Amino acid sequence: MKYMFQFAIVAMLLLLGGCSESSNDKGGAAGNYSRIEGIVTDRDGPITSGKVIIKDKNGAAITSVTLNGDSRYSADIPANTAYPVFLEIEGHDELLEAVVLDPMAVKQDITPMSSLVVRSARDLGGVTKENMARAAINAISQSKTASGKNTTAGFKGDPTKQYGGWH
User: Fold this and answer.
1) What is the pLDDT along the chain (167 residues), one digit of tens a residue?
2) What is the distance, to the nearest Å, from the Cα of residue 1 to the centroid of all Cα atoms in its chain?
């Protein structure tokens, strides 16, 4: 059951990049593009300033969007863009990034969790669908352990009672 839940989450992350409510194809023959949108957050909450830089699979910047007091972004990606597309935040202390693997994805939030998944996929040998799936499962497992459920790191309260009371 646990693995079925993890698989469902990974499938949503990889195949959809979020919930798709409409087609990505817009405009006429000369103006075809895909739209990616989402929110940007760090461990402290929404990021409302900075710039979302969007790069193609070769690392070339293809567009950018400035966050002006709102953590939401929306960017148009040219139809001929090479995927995966990498999203990075410029003007923030911590490197936050995300990856969109397929032009059919329309939503992708940029968060510490998305950054962890991207870094883990790189460590596994590169940003491929298979490595992203493995990295997402590992991140979910790591997140559950780090939440304090199975560790003492998340203990809140009197430390003398943490291990059955010692004085």
Assistant:
1) 454 444 445 444 444 444 333 334 444 344 578 899 999 999 999 999 999 999 998 899 999 999 989 999 999 999 888 899 999 999 888 889 999 998 888 999 999 999 999 999 999 999 999 999 999 998 887 765 555 444 444 444 444 444 444 43
2) 24
| Rounded Cα distance, 5 and 141, in Å | 11
Q: Is the overall model pTM greater than 0.70, yes or no? A: no
CB 112 within 8 A of CB 96: yes
Tokens of 2: 């646990």
What is the 3 state secondary structure string of the chain? Answer: CHHHHHHHHHHHHHHHCCCCCCCCCCCCHHHCEEEEEEEEEECCEECCEEEEEEECCCCCEEEEEEEECCCEEEEEEECCCCCCEEEEEECCCCCCEEEECCCCCCECCECHHHHHHHHHHHHCCCCCHHHHHHHHHHHHHHHHHHCCCCCCCCCCCCCCCCCCCCC
Residues with Cβ within 8 Å of 92's Cβ and at least 6 positions away in sequence, in order, are 42, 47, 50
Cα angle 26-29-31, degrees, rounded to a multiple of 5: 55
